[in-house]
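Q: What structure does this chain adopt?
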Amino acid sequence: MNTLPILFGTLLAGALLGYWLRMLIALSRKGSIELETKHRLVETKEAAQRIIDTANKKAEERLAELRTEEHTREEKLQNTETRLIKKEELLDTRAAELDREHETLKEREGTVLARESAVQNDEALLTERLEVIGKLTMSEARAALIARTEAEFAEDLELHRHKLETQMQEDIQLRAREILATAINRLAVSVASELTTATIQIPSEDIKGKIIGKEGRNIRAFERLAGVELIVDDAPGAIIVSSFDPVRRAVAAEALGELIKDGRIQPAKIEEVIQKAQENSNETMKKRGTEAVYECGIYNFDPRLVSVIGRLHFRTSYGQNVLQHSIECAHLAGMLAEELKADVQVAKAGALVHDIGKALDHEVQGSHVDIGIRILRRFNTDERIIAAMKSHHDDCPHETVEAVIVQVADMISGSRPGARRDTAENYIKRLQELEGLAVRFAGVERAFALQAGREIRIFVHPENVTDSEARTMARAIALEIESELRYPGEIKVTIIRETRIIDFAR
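A:
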């Protein structure tokens, strides 16, 4: 029983001892932490002081640099101000000098005007005295001098002009022959001749009756659907298809040939065959147009425009197929453009479409040039091509060298032998116009158009026209022909002045 208090006291003493030891340990640790904290605080203050010292030093250095820069800038400004002051003084000095010079010039101007007025008065007096002495006014003397000079040197001047014209003409012809020889030697295009009617051969005369049909119903149906006229009685063994529209004529000829081959000729069959022939003609136009643009090396046309170009295959002009003529012009224009260093593609394209208006000239109002311009603009064609094609008949001024090339190519293709056929009425009319133009000139006795209108010979009255006046008249007639008449190639103007003296021996 006595051990329990002893044990309890022992435990209490141990607990107190342990608590006391822990307190000692905690106090020792607290002292060491505070010591370490104070040490770090001292180090931090020292580092901060070093940073502050460094910053102050750099600030002082930068401040010194800024003061130096400011001083330098002030010196520059001072120097600039000094220079400006000197320039201002110099300008003031020069302005004063200019004012003095201006006053001097004014004084001199007054002196010169006074002297000029005096000279004019003296000149007027001298002129009056000369007119009194010579009994001629100044204008009369000038006119007399000019007339005398013209009379003395008229023949020399005319001979010199004629020499220059001859030399220039020889140079032009030489260069033209070189270009044309190069172009023509590179071109060999056959020209197909198309008429305004198409003849369909038939195996027997019985076919004519089938085509006419009962009470003429077959032929009426055919003419109504095809838009052509059939002539079945004039030519033996043949039927003639007549139409002003070459496309309709071609469609009708193809349909009629198919009907004759099939043998079943009645209105329903006629309608079917004509419709098929129209589809074939559209394909043909597209094919011909594509072949033409590929042959000419032109690849940027609208496909619808290509079909319109192919339509020219069915069109003729003076017996010349227009599509073949256009292709020939395109080749010629390309070669001429190469020789003249012009735009070959624009020249070829302009020549190919220069007559495109003829594909629709019987359907649309206006000349074929105006129609062609509207067609090309509708299909967004390059304006350079339009400018090249619209002047080939001088309807519009020549804006580019390619326009002149297209016109020359058109003239070459149309005027070469065998290219075109003309009617007798047009031929006679052209010759009469040529002769009538020549006889309008004063002093002309007679005029004769020769060599199919390629030359005109004019006989003048020798007592009314001198040799020099004959040369001048030849040039005037040539210019008049160029301005009034339309003709392919060139026309030679020959003036003949002869004096015949007749006497009789009896």
